[in-house]
Write a structure and sequence with these properties.
The chain has one domain (3-194). It is 77% helix and 0% strand. It contains nine helices and no strands. The relative contact order is 0.15. It has helices at 3-11, 13-23, 27-38, 40-53, 67-96, 105-115, 117-122, 131-157, 161-194. The model has no long low-confidence stretch (mean pLDDT 88). With 200 residues, it is mostly helical. It is elongated.
Length: 200
């Protein structure tokens, strides 16, 4: 399992990435031992929060989703997170050639998946879907995620720090474009009959 690597990554990112790099993950290994496990956290928490806790808009009526609707969204959410990690991992591998970083694709997937770990873990707050709480807690975690990514690229991709910074910046821009694309797809799905169903 990858839990020891996660703990080390949080305590000392540089040595954590060195341990992950030495492990030489394969794509299947990353998925089975890390991504598929950690991506369950926000999906399950989101399902619970939207069906059992609910949320309010501007102090209005408590809103909840029906269980079938929430289950469908949770499954799509889970698959989207896995697809997002896979897309970023593939992009790291593809873009690595530009920066003289020819690493196995498994290492690139490991870099993408372990970078996303703080975001997966903070997803537990979706069990209590209050916007201000998720925002206040999420922003520092997003900053830490960015930090460990910038720390990990030179180690995982075996490039100098200066080139690693440029590589990381390019990948961060790609990640933001991917996120916006996923939001656009979500909006399209909502407009074609996949909108959530609320309890009365």
């Amino acid at each position: 399992m990858s839990f020891s690597h996660v703990i080390k990554l949080f305590i000392d990112p540089a040595s954590g990435w060195a341990a992950i790099h030495a492990r030489q993950y394969s794509v299947v290994g990353v998925l089975l031992k890390h991504t598929l496990i950690f991506a369950l956290i926000p999906a399950v928490a989101g399902y619970f929060g939207t069906t059992h806790v609910g949320w309010q808009v501007a102090g209005g009526e408590l809103v909840k989703l029906t269980e079938p609707s929430a289950a469908n969204i949770a499954v799509l959410y889970y698959l989207a997170m896995i697809a997002g990690v896979g897309t970023v991992g593939w992009a790291i591998h593809w873009m690595g050639r530009t920066y003289g970083a020819s690493q196995p694709i498994g290492q690139c997937f490991a870099l993408a998946s372990f970078t996303a770990t703080p975001l997966f873990l903070i997803g537990v707050l979706q069990a209590y879907p209050v916007l201000w709480l998720n925002l206040v807690a999420g922003l520092p975690v997003l900053a830490f995620t960015t930090f460990i990514f910038f720390t990990g690229v030179p180690i995982m991709m075996e490039v100098p720090q200066e080139r690693g910074f440029l590589f990381s910046s390019a990948m961060l821009a790609f990640g933001l474009v991917t996120l916006v694309s996923m939001l656009a797809v979500t909006a399209l799905l909502w407009g074609t009959g996949f909108a959530p169903s609320f309890t009365s």
